[in-house]
Write a structure and sequence with these properties.
The protein has 135 residues and is mostly helical. It has one domain. It has five helices and no strands. Helix 1 runs antiparallel to helix 2 and helix 1 runs parallel beside helix 3.
Length: 135
């Protein structure tokens, strides 16, 4: 799983870089910048997690849970901000949204992604801390 985390981290980093090219074309370029940064930073997080992976003292089931939560949380973070930029939405991100608001369906998708990825990433961090302390 550590190699896959490294590969997916570099992939997300690349996606974040490529997102930078479309920023001027988006309905909200400032939110596009947020998406670009989320892709790059979350890609780095996955690489760091991949490098730490062998040091985690967790059962196989907890490693699998942590892996999938990390993949979901990092990619959903990039996607939520990209969709908000594309749609000109993002009420839950008022600084980057700059007062823009999408349809109720669009805002619902973004809200779901933001809340679920937040829970996922907090869980990854807590599990990671426990896994490192146990070793």
């Amino acid at each position: 799983m550590d190699i896959l985390l490294l590969q997916l981290g570099i992939l997300l980093f690349l996606i974040g870089l490529l997102t930078g090219f479309v920023i001027p074309k988006l309905a909200n370029p400032r939110m596009g910048l947020a998406s670009h940064l989320e892709g790059v930073l979350n890609g780095i997080f996955l690489v760091a997690l991949g490098l730490l992976w062998q040091r985690l003292n967790l059962s196989n089931i907890w490693l699998v849970i942590t892996f999938w939560l990390a993949i979901y949380g990092t990619f959903a973070n990039w996607l939520a901000t990209l969709l908000a930029a594309f749609w000109g939405a993002g009420v839950l991100m008022p600084i980057a949204a700059m007062g823009r608001q999408g349809s109720s369906r669009q805002e619902g998708v973004i809200r779901f992604l933001l809340f679920s990825l937040s829970v996922s990433m907090i869980a990854v961090c807590v599990i990671g801390i426990v896994g490192l302390r146990a070793g």
